[in-house]
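Entry 14. Structure prediction run on the chain below.
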Amino acid sequence: MKLSDALRKAQSLSLDLVEIAPTANPPVCKIVALGKFRYDISKHERDRRPAGAKLKELKFRVNIDDHDYLTKIRHGEEFLDRGNKVRVQLQFRGREMAHQEFGMQLMEKVRDDLSGMAQVEMEPKITGRNVTMTLSPLPANRRKRRFSAPPPKTVGEDETASSPNGT
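Output returned:
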């Protein structure tokens, strides 16, 4: 289409003639509302930009049960595997403050258990009634999961194998 025809058509529609590909031969233009076009471009650029690493948090208590601990460690591994940083927070309540060494032992255990996935960014630090530690993920090629989720059970296989009288 000739430039004069394209300009006339854009004016008749109360829109703008925008050059999309100036290096093409012939140059490619589009009849659009300029404001909407700029908005769409900025939105597209924003979507292409990678989002920064998010900070996820795991909260522990000193007297945590083994199963609950393993569940939280699995969640921590999942967060780290997705490239997120993890803040580990241990909360003391009441007389637990008298034995802060148990809390520090638990934090050391968390650090050791997640050592295959993360490195310590901020050492465990006591602030008030909390102990906080920040972990950042290792590069993807150095990550090794230790506590992956158990494989999903298939209903048919489990029930037949576990029946006590074999029926």
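The two ends are 80 Å apart (CA to CA).
Filed with the rest of this week's runs.
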